[in-house]
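Budget justification, computational time. The allocation requested in the original proposal was used primarily to generate structure tokens for proteins on the priority list. As evidence of use, we reproduce two of the resulting records. The first is shown immediately below.
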Amino acid sequence: MKNCVLLLVLQGPLLGALFLGFPLFSSYALLQGHPLRRVLAMAWSSIWKVRLLFIVFMLIGMHTGAWRASGTSAYLVLLFPEMIRPSCFLLLAFLANCAVSFLLGSFFATAATMGVVSMNIGLNLGVPPLFTGGAILSGVYFGDRMSPVSTSAMLVGVLTGTDIYRSIRSMACSAFAPFLLACAAYFLRGLRESAGAGAPAADSLRGFAALYSFSPWLLLPALSILGCSLLRVPIRWNMALSIALAALLALFEQGMPARELARSLILGYRSPPPELSGLADGGGLVSMLKVAAIVCLSSFYAGIFEATGLLDGLKAKFESLAARRGRAPAVAAAGLFSSLIACNQTFAIVLTHQICSRFGLSREKLALALEDSAVILSPLVPWSIACAAVLDATGSAAGAVFFAVYLYLIPLWNLWRSRGL
């Protein structure tokens, strides 16, 4: 885990850090007397437990590519700036990023689209970028935490053996008060910034009109996600339907050649005008390969830790904390600890789950505890990819972390609510 921090400090790639840890932890297992075959079996066993995630990852990549090719993502982004006024900009920026992140299920895709637009509009209105960055960071992780197409929500569901739709219902209940408090905080802060000047539109959005043909039909893929979620359609079929609708819109509404559509689904959408590449490009099956590799390596680490007892001392300390202070504070502390050292959200989730698996929580309570700790605390760690990726995509300063109100309120509220757990 130290190698992750070291490579990030040296600006090295996260995957490189994780791959570096592979031989190190394998060597530790071999030195403990485990044969090579046993070490490989540890890795395969842990990866096999999350095998269904890789199918979902493929669908998510195709889903984001199809939405970009069809113009659905761009249409969602364009709907919000028309409603933004200076006095309520921060509130609407938060809500807009919440809505888009819930539909896309990706913090980075939301940050690269609605997040960029929000920052540009905020600059035009004279709103300090630290406040705008905080609202964006809060909003993009609203959906990353509880979207039916979120990779983090799916990972938590696989680790805990819980149904994603039941978990979303629990997360919605636990987030209701923090959400309202965050809305109030951004509204009150926005009232103080209402004196700024500027037009509520970003220049970078005007080129979208030349790139796409817009109509309400482009909302169909988003409405299908919501409708299928309400009907609790299995997530794979839910996403497959949305992909099919977006593909049809790309072919017939946007006039995209079938060959280009296939390329967008696999390699990601690429905007013909290069000036719109920062907003429009992305997605595709290959965009999920890095996430899949991180999950593979994180699962391998979990298998090694479990088989060798490497974390037994650490687990004992957190179990002692749970006995003295309660299980909810212990899970929150484990999530914060994991987020500080893991450098990425996926590894933080896996590590927190392993540390807290013997706390005696039910599967549903453990899933909610993971969502309220590792998932939501990783974006508050400046050296974590979960934080750095959003700040870099939107051009926000690191200080924006202090204004991500919603991310602080979720764990604090649920610690108070779970007293005695």
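The second record produced under the same allocation is shown here.
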Amino acid sequence: MKYIIDFDSTFTQVEALDELVRISLENHPEKEKIVKEIESLTNAAMEGRLSFTESLERRVKLLHANKKHLGQLVKVLKKKVSQSFSRNSNFFKKHSDQIFIVSGGFKEFITPVVAAYHIPPENIFANTFLFDFDGNIAGYDKSNPLSEEGGKVKLLRQLNWKDDVFVIGDGYSDFQLKEAGIVKKFYAFTENIERAAVAEKADHVTPSFDEFLYVNKLPMAISYPKNRIKCLVLGEVPAETIDILKAEGYSIRHKKAEVEEKYLKDMGILVAGGGEKLTNKWIEKCTRLKVIGYLGNSKGQVDHEYCARRGIVILDDKRNNRYSSQFIPKRVIDFVNTGSTGFSVNFPDIQLFELAGAHRFIHIHENKPGIMAKINEVFARHHINILAQYLKTNDQIGYVITDVNEEYDKTVINDLKKIPHTVKFRMLY
């Protein structure tokens, strides 16, 4: 199996040439006009409305850049690696011989950026700049097939790989590989930009690299893609709150009035505006709900004890702080990512950081004697090395977080769920 990954707007969040022109024309009086022209040429080529050859040639002429600008660009791009790729750096390390960057961009800035992800130089296929005596970009190597229209198709035909090949990218040139019958599947990557004309032709739309790994049953940094986590925003909620949740990658639905019952069954996160009344009968229908973020004081609006018995954490803002629109969604995100229950009104307070090189299990159970012993008996029976363990209880529930080493028998999950008085079990990463 081989994995081809595009660079611009896929491996990185941005188009490198767009960023390069911003750097090279920093003090130019027509900077914004030229930037918009380059962006327009980029989009036209990526959507298949303009030949890649013409787009590239016209963009390079507008750069006015030299080698010193490329050094500045690399620093920018290293900070702009797509979050889901950065999060899954271990996958790149373990599968470096199977991963290839195939791009219409340029090796001069691609190679130093992807080097941190253990992708060897020989696995990078891209264009190269030509420079004049003063180090200014004077053009590019036009003998490279990647400088031409359909260049990725031409390159792959030359390589003549016999393996199954999956391609991940955001542009029309990536789809062309599938159209030509050279790759097994094309995944339209939409974490940074979604091009409708490209996405509609894909075998699968993948809003993150996590999604790609998940559907192909490959090792991933988190247990479940964030784009698959359904988040219901209910009532009058500030746009700032919704933007924070969207930026985290959740699938958002905002309802100010009645919510369809079919959506309640899939909802994992609920963020509610102050004054919203959430009845037990309504919450009972939310079978996958893990956390409620309440923008205001939830007392009298949500039954704290009932939610605790169902393993649902409530995070609220009793004082209606003016920063609640930021504070509550960030606490919700922290709970989803690490299991931290700081500022919860119905759960024991545990505040944690992610532990590198580990898997994190969360076990919520009724506060009964002997549960902790049963949990550790399961780990011992499966020969699992515990790296760290945290337990807190209140009158109703026990909340256990266990970090284990990366190697474990998958049947341990079922055994933990079967422990008597278990309320909920989660594997975070």
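A brief technical remark on that second record: The radius of gyration is 25 Å.
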